[in-house]
Amino acid sequence: xxxxxTPLQDAINHILARRDKNSMLEIKFINSVKGRGIFTxxxxxxxxxxxxxxxxxxxxxxxxxxxxxYPSACSVFMFDFIWKQKTLCIDGALEDGSFGRLVNDEHxxxxxxxxxxxxxxxxxxxxxxxxxIAAGSEITYDYGGKEWPxxxxxxxxxxxxPYELL
Length: 166
Description:
Blueprint: H1 7-17, E1 25-31, E2 35-40, E3 49-53, E4 56-59, H2 60-69, H3 72-75, E5 78-83, E6 86-91, E7 104-105, E8 112-119, E9 122-129, E10 140-141, E11 164-165
Parallel strand pairs: 7-10, 8-11
Antiparallel strand pairs: 1-2, 3-9, 4-6, 5-6, 8-9
């Protein structure tokens, strides 16, 4: 009888391997407004680790510098958060083939929640299922805030995002 890996251990295993759940997730083009999204190829249970939001870990000063250099379309891939009383940022603007950067915003009925995980002394942002997610579903989470351009009548900072520290 094999023991099931806990969702936290599953997340850490994928973080350390720097890989996504390629057999359980896929990238699909949605439309010209929304762009691409991540869809499930398998079912996820409530609480399961789904995907890491990967990118380069940078400090707040470097994040602000890059925001001034990047076109506005790239700044939506920058995720600010607080870790050990310091503002940091995961810069996911680089098209690196990872899935987490392509998960879309859904503030009304998201199926995932972002959690902050420490692995090998560094912070990592990971999405976990809020409820059971059926195969074929789009993975979504609430980006937080009300200033996103697509939320006006339907900012770039995600530091007010309600993530959970594990």
